[in-house]
């Protein structure tokens, strides 16, 4: 009898000890219900939206530039990549092609993350000024993602709340999409700061929102509205924050990053331990760099996938400075003979 009592006691203790394990939240797999609790979570949430820039090579670390450069009159690619060549020739027969599909998908990853912040941070008890700023940052970033979706693809589905697996949103018109971009930016401007301390460089500012708002109006040929938005940077309250650098080359030199011409600058970093700009690969650590220089560079140095057409160089050569010298922007911008 004594033996059975001991066994029963041990069993009860074991079951009691297991109960907490089953109820505990797995910190490695947070859910909406378990995550959005405090200011630290809000900061992590908005940082994840910025993290979209580094998630794959499909945005500003590499591919997104090609959607504009290769379809323009100024640029071309000669590296031999079939997807890039088709893009350059407007021969888009396969919309699931990696370059096209990856940029689209990653932009919507950013939209999804921004929507999470916008929906959940208002319910967190935290410093109100910080809360408003974080929500404004999320609106700026969502606007940036939708600006690119509208610019490069046209008529994107507008998802303005956290999406569910079975959601099938309709395609917006271009006018509707740009109107939403302008709405997000106009609301963000109110709560975005003019600048940040060094530790927070790269976050969205009021000037960045005004600049993107101006570009949004330009795409719709709303020139007066664009001029009004840009005025903040040139003659308005932001004029003392943004000025031309003394040397145009400073905009392309790693030691001169975040200079007085920088309005919104993604904070890429060198990582000598990795050779990729694709941070979605869990086997590669902290790939927050960019490979765009190598892809643009000519054969022997790079892949020659983003060259400038000769007529652009010739235009610079024809027009001299007031001192009858070659335009210094030419050598800073192009490799040419």
Q: Using DSSP, what is the number of strands?
A: 2
- Number of discrete domains: 2
| Helix percent band | 40-55%
* Total of DSSP H or I helical runs spanning 4+ residues: 14
Per the CATH scheme, the topology name of the largest domain is Serine Threonine Protein Phosphatase 5, Tetratricopeptide repeat
The backbone outline, from C-alpha atoms, is globular
Please write the CATH class name of the largest domain: Mainly Alpha
Largest sheet, if any?
A: 2 strands, antiparallel
Tell me the strand percentage band.
under 5%
CATH architecture of the largest domain: Alpha Horseshoe
Trace the largest sheet across and list its strands. Answer: 1-2
Radius of gyration: 25 Å
Distance between the termini: 98 Å
Instruction: Output the structural class.
Output: mainly alpha
Average of the residue pLDDT scores: 88
Order of helices and strands: HHHHHEHHHHHHHEHH
Low-pLDDT runs of 5+ residues are none
Write a brief caption for the model.
The protein is 50% helix and 1% strand. The protein is built from 14 helices and two strands; from the N terminus they run H-H-H-H-H-E-H-H-H-H-H-H-H-E-H-H. The protein is globular, with a radius of gyration of 25 Å.
Question: What does this protein look like?
Answer:
- The protein is mainly alpha-helical and about 325 residues long.
- The chain has 2 domains: about 270 residues, Serine Threonine Protein Phosphatase 5, Tetratricopeptide repeat (Alpha Horseshoe); about 30 residues, no CATH class.
- The chain is built from 14 helices and 2 strands; from the N terminus they run αααααβαααααααβαα.
- A two-stranded antiparallel sheet has the order 1-2.
- α8 runs antiparallel to α9.
- It starts with a helix and ends with a helix.
- The mean pLDDT is about 90.
């Amino acid at each position: 009898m004594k033996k059975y009592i001991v066994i029963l006691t041990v069993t009860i203790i074991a079951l009691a000890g297991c109960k907490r394990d089953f109820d505990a939240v797995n910190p490695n797999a947070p859910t909406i219900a378990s995550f959005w609790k405090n200011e630290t979570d809000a900061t992590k949430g908005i940082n994840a939206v910025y993290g979209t820039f580094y998630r794959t090579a499909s945005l500003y670390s590499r591919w997104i530039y090609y959607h504009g450069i290769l379809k323009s009159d100024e640029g071309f690619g000669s590296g031999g990549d079939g997807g890039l060549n088709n893009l350059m020739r407007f021969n888009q027969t396969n919309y699931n092609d990696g370059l096209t599909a990856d940029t689209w998908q990653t932009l919507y990853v950013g939209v999804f993350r921004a929507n999470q912040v916008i929906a959940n941070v208002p319910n967190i008890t935290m410093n109100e000024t910080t809360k408003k700023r974080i929500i404004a940052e999320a609106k700026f970033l969502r606007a940036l993602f939708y600006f690119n979706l509208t610019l490069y693809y046209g008529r994107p589905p507008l998802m303005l709340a956290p999406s569910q697996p079975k959601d099938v949103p309709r395609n917006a018109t271009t006018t509707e999409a740009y109107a939403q971009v302008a709405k997000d930016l106009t609301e963000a401007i109110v709560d975005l700061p003019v600048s940040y301390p060094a530790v927070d460089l790269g976050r969205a500012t009021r000037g960045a929102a005004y600049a993107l708002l101006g570009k949004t109006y330009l795409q719709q040929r709303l020139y007066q509205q664009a001029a009004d938005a840009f005025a903040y940077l040139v003659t308005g309250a932001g004029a003392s924050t943004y000025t031309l650098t003394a040397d145009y080359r400073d905009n392309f030199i790693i030691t001169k990053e975040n200079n007085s011409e920088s309005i919104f600058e993604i904070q890429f970093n060198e990582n000598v331990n990795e050779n990729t700009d694709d941070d979605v690969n869990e086997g590669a650590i902290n790939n927050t760099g960019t490979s765009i220089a190598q892809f643009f560079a000519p054969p022997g140095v790079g892949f020659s996938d983003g060259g400038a057409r000769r007529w652009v160089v010739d235009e610079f050569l024809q027009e001299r400075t007031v001192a009858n010298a070659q335009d210094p922007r030419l050598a800073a911008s192009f490799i040419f003979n």
